[in-house]
Request: fold
Amino acid sequence: MRRLCDEYGLLLILDEVQSGVGRTGRLFAHEWAGVTPDIMAVAKGIGGGFPLGACLATAEAASGMAAGTHGSTYGGNPLAMAVGNAVLDVVLADDFLEHVRDVALVFPPGARRAQGPFPGGHRGHSRRGSAAGHQGEDPGWRAAQGGARRKAARGAGRRQRPAAPAAP
Reply:
């Protein structure tokens, strides 16, 4: 992507709202791929639970932005900025990101042990730091979903009577 964007004069814009600020064991998830975006959206992790978002850009990409035109409802008020600084103090501390990567190594064996109640069992997993996914199969869930879809389809053509107004 980076090469194509450079070749055609396009900006590479990445969304790190879910994956950024240490969640993958690197400060930003794109670091695993070795690419650098021109513009990046970050939120959630940067606030450590406090509503905070940011638009990060290279100097060249930012040259096309006028102050105030890329605002955010989670933008920079003094409290939010103090929270963001505190989060970065923790995430950027020595060995923090290494610890996130180390703790993530515990996930796969635990995921396989957790398959007990699911007859289809563990089919796979993926992970980067604390961002981990589990792929499993529960035939009972799939059958229940099929039944719910059939029931919804049977009632799809019926007209529903509006609820009676509440008594005064």
